[in-house]
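Homework help board

Subject: predicted structure for assignment chain

Our instructor gave us this sequence and asked us to write out the predicted structure in C-alpha cell form, then describe one feature. I got the C-alpha cells but I'm not sure how to describe them. Can anyone check?
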Amino acid sequence: MNLKSLAKKVKNKIYRAIPKKVANFYSCNVCGWTGNRFDSDCWHKHSKCPHCGSDVRQRLFVACLEHTRDLGINLSLKGKRILHFAPEASIGKLITNLTDNYKTADFLREDCDIRLDMCDMKEIAPLSFDIVIAFDVLEHVSNFNTALKEIHRILNDDIGIAILSVPQRDNLPQTYEDPTITEPKDREDAYGQWDHLRIFGDNFGDEVAKEGFQVTEISWKSFNDMTSLRHTLKHPIPNPHINATNNRRIYICSKTRSSQAQPISTNKSST
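My C-alpha cell output:
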C-alpha cells in the first residue's frame, strides 16, 4: 500500500467515526433537521430525512444551490419562472420562498397546477420558463428523448436550465429499455419498479446533451467529504439489488442553441 492509499484509508476511518462521537451530527439541508441518523426506505438504509422526507437527490439539489461558486455553475432560483414536475412538498416550499412564478405539473396527480404530458406540452408556449425541475420523472414517460425536446422548447433561450435526476443502475454503460416488456411484474424485474419504462445508464448526460443542452453532472464527489457526509449526499449503505441507484447524480442542463453540446462532470474529489 502506497502512502497516498494509506492516507485515504486513515481519513475515511476518521470520517466514519465522527458521527458516532458528535451528537446530532447529521443535517438535512432541505428542512434544517438535525439528528443522529437518517431514516430508511425500501431501497436504502439511513438515507431519508425523518422530518421532510427528502432523499439523496433532493439534498444534492439543495447542495448545488448552496455551492454554485465552488461547482462553477450559474444556478439561481431567485425571481425565476419555474416549472416543477412531480413536485416534492419540501422542495416546493423552498422554491416558493425564492420566486412568485412557480408552477407544478404532473400527468396523473390532481394536486398540481397543470396536468401535463411531458412528451406533448402543447399547453405551454415556447420560451415560457427559465427553469424546469424533474426528479425521477423521465423513467415514466413514453419517450424520454421527446420529453427532453419539449423541455428544451419551453425553456428561455438565454438562461433556460433543466435540473434533472433519473434512476441509474450501477455500472450500466447504456440505458436499457425494451418496449416488449409491458407487464407490471416484468417491468419491476427489468427496471426496478412496475411503472418504469427503462433504467438509465451512465450515458444519460450524453443523451441530454444530444437534445441541445450543456450538461453538468453533480454527485457526492462534487462536494468536500464533510459536506457529503453530514447531509448524506450518497447512500451510506449500497443496496446490492441490480436496479438500485447507489450513486445518485443531479444533472444541471443549460439550454444551448447548438445540438453539439457535451456533458461535463464536476466530480471534484475532496482532498
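Reply (TA_rk): Your C-alpha cells look well-formed. For the description, you could write something like this. The CA atoms of residues 180 and 187 lie 10 Å apart. That's the kind of observation they're looking for.
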